[in-house]
Design a protein that fits this description.
Layout (H helix, E strand, L loop, with lengths): L1 H10 L8 H16 L1 H6 L1 H16 L2 E5 L2 E5 L2 H8 L14 E5 L5 H5 L6 E5 L3 H13 L6 E4 L2 E2 L6 E7 L17 E10 L1 H7 L7 E6 L5 H6 L2 H5 L4 E5 L5 H13 L2 E7 L2 E6 L1
Parallel strand pairs: 3-4, 3-9, 4-5, 6-8, 9-10
Antiparallel strand pairs: 1-2, 7-8, 10-12, 11-12
Helix pairs in contact: 2-4
Length: about 280
């Protein structure tokens, strides 16, 4: 049944497109993805690389409508992220003050859940993603609600770092050193900011921060170390992505949050939910 549902979603890509060219591109993506199903079961990594390489030829800066929200996408992986069923929906609650979306990509969570919060502050350091994020905020008339910051959340301010760029997964850029040339291609110099500093500069009081999502491809402990004033308030709830194989990162995050009186629950193998006791 799950496979049938997946095939139905793939065949339905075109209905999300805005304009004939995008609809045609999404229809071609459906055909290509279905034709590559055998490769998916043989080598998922190669399947992803090949699919995104082909799709990048006709999906760059395509515009789609996902449940009434408009998005400019840059790759097939952007579309897959937007269409993926969110495991986090039940954790978002209306009236939770200010939402910090750290690792905002092109705005899936910031835009989808903007109406739940008084304000949204999004951190996205990579230039292409940031440009699409700003376009998507404008397309959805959310400029007064969402403020986007082209900075990497970190434990120190104004540090220049090399961001390793995902070759096809434009939501997979990382500050970690990554030798895999099949997945990553080149670097971009980015500037850091602590979350505490960014919140203060935006005129937000620490106690107003009610919900935080962190998805920073392995750099989560550095982000948390830069928001100690917010954690001191023991108010904000957090969703943090931690890769299941990275036990060292999980232990560091668990130790830091435990020191601030937080309880941690597993959402799935790669994500935790943390809330004050």
């Amino acid at each position: 049944m799950k496979k049938i549902k997946s095939i139905a979603i793939i065949l339905d890509y075109h209905r999300y497109g805005i304009g004939f060219k995008t609809k045609l591109g999404l229809f071609l993506l459906s055909c290509i993805q279905l034709s590559l199903v055998p490769l998916y079961y043989l080598d998922r990594h190669l399947h992803s690389v090949f699919l995104n390489r082909i799709a990048s030829l006709f999906l760059k800066d395509a515009q789609v409508n996902i449940e009434g929200r408009l998005f400019v996408i840059g790759s097939a992986s952007d579309l897959f992220i937007l269409l993926s069923e969110s495991k986090f929906i039940s954790y978002f609650k209306k009236g939770d003050g200010v939402f910090l979306d750290i690792g905002g990509h092109i705005g899936k969570y910031a835009i989808t859940f903007a109406d739940y919060f008084k304000r949204v502050l999004v951190f996205e350091p990579e230039l292409r993603n940031f440009e699409r994020l700003e376009k998507n905020i404008t397309l959805n008339h959310l400029g007064k609600k969402i403020f986007a910051l082209q900075r990497a959340a970190y434990h120190v301010d104004n540090k220049k770092l090399a961001l390793h760029l995902g070759k096809y997964n434009l939501g997979g850029h990382t500050l970690l050193n990554v030798p895999d040339s099949l997945l990553y291609s080149g670097t971009e110099v980015i500037t850091t900011v602590t979350v505490d500093t960014a919140v203060q500069d935006a005129g937000i009081t620490f106690s107003d921060v009610g919900f935080i999502k962190i998805d920073v491809e392995g750099a989560e402990i550095f982000v948390l170390e830069g928001m100690r004033h917010i954690l001191d308030q023991r108010r904000a709830k957090l969703i943090v992505e931690i890769w299941d194989w990275n036990q060292e990162s999980f232990s560091e995050v668990q130790s830091l949050l435990d020191g601030y009186g937080y309880v941690i629950e597993r959402i799935d193998k790669d994500n935790i939910f943390a809330f004050p006791r």
